[in-house]
């Protein structure tokens, strides 16, 4: 089944996305780079070309050049130069991207620097960008860290990963990503994990997060495709990989890496015609072709089992 995914016939222009990977040298703990590899592979399996651009200290962030962004986690000492550069070099581009609903995934140290501030174990506060109405305080070098496997409830589904942070994050008006089922999450008190602002997602889940949570990886890809290509569909133009749109109807002739009968990369997209402007397609439903994720769900359930969340693990296996 897996090798079948690789085969891709040449065809019409494919969908291309560009991911900006912020501070890969400073913020890359506990396999955070694995999130990039997962997004790349899951795109490739759907015939989507995902280009990755690394943005380091001093690199400007042009909001028009990217379709999604990623920032990983790091030690306190590595967060200091990143905080300064985020503020001085990337804040305008990052804010413009986020206010324009670009999907952003920020893990641990990166998540902390997208909130108002991070007070490290020692040294001055690190000013954040305030994207998430939240703040983080490290309890001090001697205080126990929040370390271990973690599982949370995200919109009725489970997310699993590994956390290791000294900082305790407190939410103001920011919506949490989810509720902790087992583990610490934002802090040791309120049972919340992560934060959401528009399509920006902050989380403490390392591990890395996306390989063991294929549903969340696909959610980010769908958000990016919908945001970056939705406009094309609205304008009723633009053939992608055999997808053509005319007057509210569409036909699909696609290639796929899977071995199922009908060649199709995208699942049926419900397109509705706008009353005001006939021919203008509104809000296409973007749904990626589902993949054989049995290995990913096995790894996901292994963490649920390790955390003693047996019924949650069974529910996941039954639903797949
Ligand atoms: N240095 C931060 C803390 O300890 C973030 C750690 C991380 O990114 N894993 O809380």
Structural class: alpha/beta
H/E element sequence: EHEEHEHEEEEEEEEEEHEEEEHH
Taking strands numbered 1, 2, ... along the chain, how are they ordered across the largest sheet? 2-1-3-4-14-13
Average per-residue pLDDT, rounded, comes to 84
Structure description:
The protein is built from six helices and 18 strands. Helix content is 27%, strand content 25%. The N terminus is likely disordered. The two termini are 16 Å apart. A hairpin with a 2-residue loop joins strand 13 and strand 14. The chain is globular. Helix 1 packs across helix 4 and helix 5 runs antiparallel to helix 6. It has a six-stranded mixed β-sheet. The chain has a four-stranded mixed β-sheet with strand order 6-5-7-10. The protein has a four-stranded antiparallel β-sheet with strand order 9-8-11-12, with helices on one face. The chain is α/β, with parallel strands linked by helices and 320 residues long. The site of glutamine has 13 residues, from helix 2 and strand 9.
Question: Secondary structure elements and their pairing?
Answer:
Blueprint: E1 16-22, H1 33-44, E2 49-55, E3 68-71, H2 76-99, E4 104-107, H3 109-113, E5 117-119, E6 126-127, E7 134-138, E8 146-154, E9 157-165, E10 167-171, E11 178-182, E12 192-193, E13 195-197, E14 200-203, H4 214-234, E15 243-246, E16 249-252, E17 272-273, E18 281-282, H5 294-306, H6 310-319
Parallel strand pairs: 1-2, 1-3, 3-4, 4-14, 5-7
Antiparallel strand pairs: 5-6, 7-10, 8-9, 8-11, 11-12, 13-14, 15-16, 17-18
Task: Throw out a few tags for this protein.
320 residues; alpha/beta; 6-stranded mixed β-sheet; 4-stranded mixed β-sheet; 6 helices; 18 strands; 25% strand; disordered N terminus; binds glutamine
């Amino acid at each position: 089944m897996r090798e079948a995914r690789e085969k891709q016939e040449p065809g019409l222009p494919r969908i291309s996305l560009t991911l900006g990977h912020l501070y890969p040298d400073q913020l890359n703990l506990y396999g955070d780079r694995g999130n990039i590899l997962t997004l790349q592979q899951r795109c490739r399996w759907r015939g989507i070309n995902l280009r990755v651009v690394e943005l380091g200290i001093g690199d400007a962030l042009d909001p028009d050049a990217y379709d999604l962004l990623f920032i990983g986690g790091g030690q306190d000492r590595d967060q200091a130069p990143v905080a300064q550069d985020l503020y001085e070099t990337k804040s305008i581009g990052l804010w413009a991207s986020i206010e324009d609903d670009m999907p952003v995934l920020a893990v641990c140290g990166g998540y902390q620097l997208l909130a108002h501030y991070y007070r490290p174990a020692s040294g001055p506060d690190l000013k954040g960008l305030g994207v998430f109405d939240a703040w983080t305080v490290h309890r001090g070098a001697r205080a126990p860290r929040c370390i271990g496997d973690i599982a949370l409830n995200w919109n009725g589904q489970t997310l699993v990963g590994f956390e290791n942070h000294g900082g305790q994050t407190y939410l103001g008006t920011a919506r949490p990503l989810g509720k902790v089922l087992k583990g610490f999450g934002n802090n040791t008190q309120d049972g919340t994990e992560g934060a959401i602002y528009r399509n920006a997602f902050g989380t403490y889940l390392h591990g890395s997060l996306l390989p063991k949570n294929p549903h969340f990886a696909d959610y980010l890809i769908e958000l990016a495709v919908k945001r970056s290509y939705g406009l094309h569909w609205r304008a009723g133009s633009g053939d992608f990989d055999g997808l053509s749109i005319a007057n509210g109807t569409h036909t699909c002739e696609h290639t796929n890496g899977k071995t199922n009968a009908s060649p199709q990369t995208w699942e049926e997209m419900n397109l509705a015609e706008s009353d005001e402007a006939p021919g203008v397609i509104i809000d296409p439903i973007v749904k990626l072709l589902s993949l054989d994720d049995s290995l990913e769900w096995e790894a996901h359930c292994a963490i649920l089992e390790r955390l003693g969340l047996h019924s949650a693990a069974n529910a996941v296996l039954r639903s797949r």
